[in-house]
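User: tokens in, sequence out, please.
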């Protein structure tokens, strides 16, 4: 049986940067997540993943979700059992992944994809009641992988700490934002760009 080809959602790079402005590293925004979703879903479309991994004219959109609980942030370590070898042993403050076709629903496609990705890795209670907030954008055009992926950095504030669902591939710990600097050398690129802003993020209501 022929293996199905993964379809990923994205936006033509030129059009996306007209909407967000130039982005290198982490860039905050005042846009609401749902406002941005409406705009991006009007101009975005699905393409086969194998066609876009080396096509910098198309940006694969990746919701990248920081989970906070009061003054604490969830820090994740990707184990050697994970599927992506280049991320083994790396630390991350974001949970994310590609947006694939989703069943119809009351929320925007990008929000449904965001919830699916988080719930695959984290045991969230009643995830539908937790409202993600848009923090900004992440982009690292300095390397081949970064040139074709565009992060939508979001935050979900949890009422209480949660457990890791994917225990074989992830180790989680709750840390204060002030502790993140000492883990910086082991962080994946997007987390390294985002973490200096986490102190003010976790202190906000």
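Assistant: Sequence out:
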């Amino acid at each position: 049986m022929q293996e199905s080809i993964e379809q990923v959602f994205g936006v033509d790079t030129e059009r996306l940067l007209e909407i967000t402005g130039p982005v290198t590293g982490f860039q905050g925004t005042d846009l609401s997540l749902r406002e941005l979703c409406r705009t991006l879903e009007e101009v975005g479309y699905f393409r086969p993943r194998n066609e876009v991994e080396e096509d910098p004219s198309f940006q694969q959109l990746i919701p990248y979700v920081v989970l906070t609980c009061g003054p604490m942030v969830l820090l994740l370590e990707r184990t050697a059992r994970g599927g992506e070898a280049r991320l083994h042993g790396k630390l991350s403050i974001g949970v994310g992944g590609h947006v694939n076709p989703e069943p119809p629903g009351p929320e925007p496609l990008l929000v449904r994809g965001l919830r699916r990705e988080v719930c695959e890795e984290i045991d969230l209670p009643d995830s539908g009641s937790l409202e993600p907030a848009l923090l900004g954008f992440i982009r690292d055009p300095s390397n081949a992988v970064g040139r074709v992926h565009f992060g939508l950095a979001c935050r979900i504030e949890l009422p209480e700490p949660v457990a890791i669902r994917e225990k074989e591939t992830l180790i989680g710990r709750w840390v204060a934002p002030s502790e993140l600097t000492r883990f910086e050398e082991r962080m994946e690129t997007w987390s390294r760009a985002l973490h200096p802003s986490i102190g003010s993020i976790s202190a906000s209501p």
